[in-house]
Amino acid sequence: MSHPSTARRGVALSLLAAPMLALPACASLAQPRRAAITDFGALADDRTVNTIAIQKTIDHVAGQGGGTVVVPPGVFVSGALFLKPKVHLHLEQGAVLKCSTDMRHFPAQRTRIEGHFAPSFNPALINANGCDGLKITGAGTLDGAGRPIWDLFWKLRKAAPDPHNFANIGVPRARLALIERSRGVTVEGVTFKDSQFWNLHLYRCQDVTVRGARFEVPDDYKQAPSTDGIDLDSCQRVTVEDCYFSVTDDCIAAKGSKGPQALEDKDSPPVEHIRVRNCEFRRGHGVMTLGSEATLVRDVLVENCRVGPRVQNVAVLKLRADTPQHYEDIHFRGLTLDSDSGLIVAIRPWTQYFNLKGAPPPKSIVRNVSLVGIKGRFGTFGKIAPNPGQTEIGDILLKDIDVALGTGTLDATGAPGLRLENVRVNGKPLTL
């Protein structure tokens, strides 16, 4: 039997120790782990290649159970970096994480690109695989330093025997970010600038939010090749909101597989449940493009966005004659246009890189597509046409549209379900 005074001392010590034991857990919740890349040797001199120092920072944070890698103000050059689960990336105001243009710092590997897995192509600047809950945030910049890479691309393409079919992945170049097989991803506030290839490539991701991000190439560069803003490759439940796009390829593209056996491709599930809202599209080949590699795309809504003055197309549905495609429930509404040129709608054949591989031409379906509540000025209404004998186009609705066009015509063939309701062009009702 213990002595009463001993028992009392034990209780008192337990009570005193209880708050002390709770402190580490509380402190951990209140102060998430953060590690600046400069603490691990990264130099902001716009010259030193900091890949080793930054990867060391990532590995350290991962080894501590997770946290945030911080890029402070300054220009930090790097090669390919690989995030790990529970490791986030934050770019402070004035921070620039810049691609090296020496492709030795992006050693080729097996990677997802253009609707398949290339056995040997360059990784991105930021790579994340299986990183559920990933956050890439801040007012800083991911800079692709793309101009010399673009110049090389056009030089080699011009010298190719068939420039129209010159392979995009024939020139080594890096995307800015590749996030794959991850859920609950947030990309917020970051500027994606001068990417050598695609800017933000999402592959097989779900429940993604891209908010307040910017995607830009220089105004004085006529055509920065393949500088798509966001590529939604086999993804579901993605929201893009309050973003800014000024690129020279597709602003947002839904992508998947391609070729006659595309429906058998288990690596390319449908692109579904996409929401794009409150964005500004200043320059680009298309606001929202389905293809060029895409098989099943369903439930896409683009709403309350501003478009112009250097956007070439608004709604683009690329119809590949060598790929079975199913585009359904694709809607654009509440758009304000402000451009002297461009097509509002382009649903038509796309033949670049065509290859049936000896198979018969596949059948495709385009169904339940609408443009509603469109106003402003643009070049022309556009074109709707199938791949003859291959594409069934039905239930297309144009409604509550009032636009001033340089050419007020809609070239529509092979779309028997096309409906026009309250559509005015240059002050007059549009009829087919």
TrEMBL record:
One of its GO terms (molecular function) is alpha-L-rhamnosidase activity. Residues 1-30 form the signal peptide. Its EC number is 3.2.1.40. It holds the Pfam family Glyco_hydro_28. Keywords: Glycosidase, Hydrolase, Signal. The lineage of its organism: Bacteria, Pseudomonadati, Pseudomonadota, Betaproteobacteria, Burkholderiales. It comes from Pseudoduganella umbonata. Belongs to the glycosyl hydrolase 28 family. GO terms for biological process: carbohydrate metabolic process. This is Alpha-L-rhamnosidase.
